[in-house]
Structures are given as C-alpha cells and as structure tokens.
Amino acid sequence: MILTVTPNPSLDRTYEVPALERGEVLRATGERVDPGGKGVNVSRAVAAAGHRTLAIVPLGGAPGALVAELLARQEIPVAPVRLGGHTRSNIAVAEPDGTLTKINAPGPRLTPGESEALLAAVGTHAPDADWVACCGSLPQGLAPAWYADLVTRVHGHGSRTALDTSGPSLPAALRGRPDVIKPNAQELAEAVGRPLATVGDALKAADELRAAGAGAVLASLGADGQLLVSDTGTWYGHAPVSVVRSDVGAGDASLAGFLAAGGRGPEALAAAVAHGAAAVRLPGSQMPTPADLDPSAVTVTTDVPLDRALSA
C-alpha cells in the first residue's frame, strides 16, 4: 500500500487553447478539472495502475470539498485533515505544441494545530504502508524542516519514504534521510547551487544529494530520460514520445510507477519511465492506466550517456 502526503493540495483547472496570446480573449477547445497536488497525483496514478493507496490531504472551503468529491468519484480513499482556510486553485493553459503555462496559487496558511493534525494523520496510517510518498510544496505556516520531521516519524513506524519537493524544503529534508527523492533537472540544479548542462552533470548532482542524506535519487530529466542512482547501481532510462499534450503530473506518474514496481532497481526505473511517457500523452493531469503504457518502448541501461546535453 502506498500512502501519499500532500501538504498543499489543489483544485487544478486545465484549458487547451489554439495559442496563448497575452492580453487577448481566448476560446478554450478543451477543459479539465482535476484534484491536484503532487501526492494526490501519485495516489491517482497508483490507483489507476490497480494498486492500493490512501491520500492524506488537508482540505478547506469549497475548493477542498470539490477535491474530495473528485477523488471519491475516482474511488481513491482519502484521509482528510480539515482546515480553516481554503484549498488553493491552480490554472494551466496548454497549447497544441505541448507548451504549458501554469499559475499556481500559494495556498492557505496552516496553523500549528493543523500542522500537528497532519503529522498525526500520517502517524495513524504509516504503519500500514509499504511506502509513504511525501510530495509537493509546503504551504504557508510550515517550515522547510517540516518534511525532515515527517520522514523521521515515518521511519519510526517502519515504513519507507519517497520525497518529491523543491526549494529549501529539499535540502532541509535530507537530514531525515529519505529512502528515495525524485527531483527534476531544475530541482537538482537548485539543490546543488549550479546549472546542469549534461546528463553527466545531473549524475554528479544526484551523487551529491545521496552524500547529503538521500538513500536513492530518481531524477526526471524530461525529454532526456530518467536517472536512478542508488547504493546498488546507476541506471539510465528513456522512452521516445512523439506527441506531448501536457506534462502536468508526469513526474508524479513516474514516481507512482516506480513505487508500485517496488521502488528499487532497473525494473522500477523502467516502470517510472513508462508511466511518465504515458502521462505526457494525456490531457491535463490525467493519470495513465495500464492500457496507456508501452513498456516495449522503454530502454534501461547502465551505460549512462554522460555527454548528452539536457534540453532547455
């Protein structure tokens, strides 16, 4: 069972438009409304793959009620933590060439009592989980070290942790020694404080994060594939994608595939790549089902293309 924790969930609205023209009235050709937030997306992808999951989410106001309703329609079990504030609403505008413009709201400010209630909910459910995926930005009111506290508590219950966050929260959380972290190329660069030009640069950055406390690093490099760096080896995975509709939630789908496949070794990396490639072919933040996957298109190798330039 994969338990997910999303401290700052969202109600995600995605509009497909012929072109994004600043200052003009745009006519959408498609629209989706989805429950959002990285951990929520991981739960949605895990459920779509036919595995057990439980999503712990702080919810408040009408947007929070709609998030809960949408998750219920998808038959995803939820452990809600009630907030006095309102769950945030995010907007994404998708163009036909795959360009995505996102507007993410900051979200509510959690009180100390709400923060502790969130940690208590994790403590209640973590003993039943194989993995606890701690995902997304921290809302106002939670210090960067909050994830480190969460990881430490989860380990105290005997469960493994996967962390997907960015900014100051990522290096702060490494003190808790998460079992795996899942940064993208930009987050890797930010964490080590320098630009990354090649896959080799990304590999070196992943090694540094492992030295700082991460057990393993699953690095999403977008069109340039994915890296898995762990104590048992280093692997590179890639799958061609001819048409990109939306990359919203693609990294979350990758993490879900990785954890559902055991969260370890080349087989789990192959599942991560297959799920990520399937997700970008779908509209909005729709999560792939087994029918959307093409495992035969995935290549996983120990021969890492160190000189391959990372896409801008």
UniProtKB/TrEMBL annotation:
It comes from the Bacteria. GO terms for cellular component: cytosol. Keywords: ATP-binding, Kinase, Nucleotide-binding, Transferase. GO terms for biological process: carbohydrate catabolic process; small molecule metabolic process. This is 1-phosphofructokinase. The lineage of its organism: Bacteria, Bacillati, Actinomycetota, Actinomycetes, Kitasatosporales. The keyword Transferase applies. Pfam families: PfkB.
